[in-house]
Amino acid sequence: LFWQTRSQDMSGPVTEDQEKLLDEALSVVKLQAFQMKRCLDKAKLMDALKHASNMLGELRTSLLSPKSYYELYMLITDEMRHLELYLLDEFQKGRRVQDLYELVQYAGNIIPRLYLLITVGVVYIKCSEISRKDILKDLVEMCRGVQHPLRGLFLRNYLLQCTKNVLPDCVEEEQEDSGSVSDSIDFVLLNFSEMNKLWVRMQHQGHTRERDRREQERRELKLLVGTNLVRLSQLDTIDVQRYRSVVLPAVLEQVVNCKDALSQDYVMECIIQVFPDEYHLATLQDFLQACAELNPAVPVKNILISLINRLSAFATRDGSNGIPSDIPLFDFFSEQIAKIIENKPDLSPEDLVSLQAALTGLALGVYKDREDYVDKVLETTNSGLDKLGRLDSPTKKSVSAYLLQNMLNNGTLVPSSEQVEQLLDLVRCLVADPGADAAAAAAAATATNSLGGDPGDGSANGAGPDSEADNEDLAEEQSLLGRVVHLFSTGPDLLDEQFGVLKTARRILATGGGRRVKYTLPPVVYQAYQLAIRFHNRQDSDDKWRKKCRKIFEFCHSTVCGLAKCELPNLALRLFVDGALVVDKIPFDQHDTVAYEFLSQAFSLYEEEISDSKRMTCFAAENHEPLRSQTVHAASKLLRKPDQSRAVAACAHLFWSGRPRELQGAEMRDLKKVGECLKRAGRLASQCMDAGLQAQLYTELVNYYLYFVLQSAGSNLDVSQLSSTAGQLLAKIREILSGLEPSADSEHIHKHFEATVEFARSQSASGDATIAGLLAQLEL
Amino acid sequence: MMNFLFGPSADLEIHLDGSDDRKKGDVLLDSGKKEACPVYFDGEAVSGKVNIRLKQSKMEHYGIKVELLGLIEQFSDRSSQHEFLSMARELARPGILTQSCCLEFEFVSVEKPYESYFGVNVKLRYFIRVTVTKRLNDLVKEQDFLVHTLAQYPDTLGGIKMEVGIEDCLHIEFEYNKSKYHLKDAIIGKIYFLLVRIKVRHMEVQILRRELVGVGPNSMSDCETVAKFEIMDGAPVKGETIPIRLFLSGYELTPTMRDVNKRFSVRYFLNLVLIDEEDRRYFKQQEVTLFRRRPNRHRRIAQEQHQSQSADTAQPVHQQPDRSYFHHRSAHFGAKSPAAASGRTAANADGANTANNNDDNEAAVSPGNSDNSSSQSGESNDQ
Question: Could you tell me which residues belong to the region Disordered (chain A) (predicted)?
Answer without folding.
Answer: 448-473
